[in-house]
Amino acid sequence: MTYASTQVFFFVYLLHMSKKCSTFAAEIEQNRIIPVKSNMNSVKIIEIKKSVFEDNDRAADALRGALKKKGVYLLNLMSAPGSGKTTTLIQTINLLKDKIRIAVMEADIDSDVDAIKIKEGTGVESIQLHTGGMCHLDAEMTQQGLDAFGNRCAEVHTAPLNEQATDASALPTGRTTLAPVGDPSMGLDLVILENVGNLVCPAEFDTGAVKNAMILSVPEGHDKPLKYPLMFSVCDVVVINKIDVMPYFDFDLEKCKEYIHMRNPKAQVIPVCAKTGEGVEAFADWLLTEVKNWKE
Amino acid sequence: MHELGIVFYIIRDVKKAAEEHGVKHVSAVVMSIGEVSTIIPDYLQDCWRWAADKEEMLKGCELKIEPIPAVTHCDSCGQDYPTVAHGKICPHCGSEQTWLLRGNEVEIKQIEV
Q1: Chain A partners within 8 Å of B49 (Cβ)
Q2: The domain spanning residue A113 has which CATH number?
Q3: What is the pLDDT of residues B3-57, one digit of tens each?
Q4: How many structural domains does chain A have?
Q5: A198 vs B21: CB contact, 8 Å cut-off?
Q6: Which of A11, A59, B89, B105 could join B34 in a cystine, given CB atoms 3.0 to 4.6 angstroms apart?
Q7: Which residue of A has its CA nearest to B10?
Q8: Is the model's pTM score more than 0.90?
Q9: Which residues of A34-53 are buried (b: 16+ CB within 10 A; e: fewer)?
């Protein structure tokens, strides 16, 4: 199943579900005998005043702290379905895999085609996460993915969502320098999380990644930063993919950069063509510098 | 499209708060939802009904949504204006140096027991 068809399937599923829900709700309304409460005092109000994202933000901060201790850099890569995340990743990893130890977590609603593509295209370890119908990953799901790498990424446990954040300093210290790549028992330097293809929901949930990057492809159009402001404001790097087909589309690269910087003045913009590899080394260089700085 | 995920977070927080107060059943949850929070109230209600009725503590529990109007502040002229009507560009001076003051909240305000 392609990304696009997976997404379509998901929407159909949601539509179907919401229809079912409204029927269900109507049934309850019809059948329920509503007890009359004459005394208003029978209702007690408990104030909560808490953001729905608060627990996830705390879990994400704790995860980042633990990753720092272990010297593992986590990149959260986001984009719309079909923008070329997997192809860009394969090119990038092939430029970096002799310098640092890399693993990939592929998050999708269904299928494992991406994890297999990464494994076949690069040889690095890759795992597939299924979100069970959810349109994004949160810090807890990311932690579960990291657990799958075993002790190569171990001891990065965060507090369960309902408890206070763990004190990261209590965890054992990990490697802080780059070790030879050949030894598979050594811990990982870089884990790349390929988030669910979607420009809305993944931007709202902090995964615990050190940095966020996103890919915008030429056919999507240069106006996307205006339409999906949150996504562009949380990303440190925006890779513009498929620049080889620019002559066939009304894509204005300068306008696109302008719109991106309206949302995030510090965002780096890297134009690439993942198919031919053009420009990918700029993204790989940025990532390598990031990983080295994270370990200092 | 993210409403179901948000509902799971609400349920987790509400159950936790109810348990802390020794409450066995919650009759209503009041949410403060910002106008530009990208949450569609109808979808949230549908997802809520579906998920909440699966929880013993939240069977039949009503979800009340209190909207928070979105307001943007302009750094150039110092005035505030309604975000939904005017977007990023200040209607008073035409500046783009503006930022969202409020309106993207997704907050559990209170529960009724």
Answers
A1: 21-22, 24-25, 28
A2: 3.40.50.300
A3: 888 999 999 999 999 999 999 999 999 999 999 888 999 999 999 999 999 999 9
A4: 1
A5: no
A6: B105
A7: A52
A8: no
A9: eeeeeeeeeeeeeebeeebb
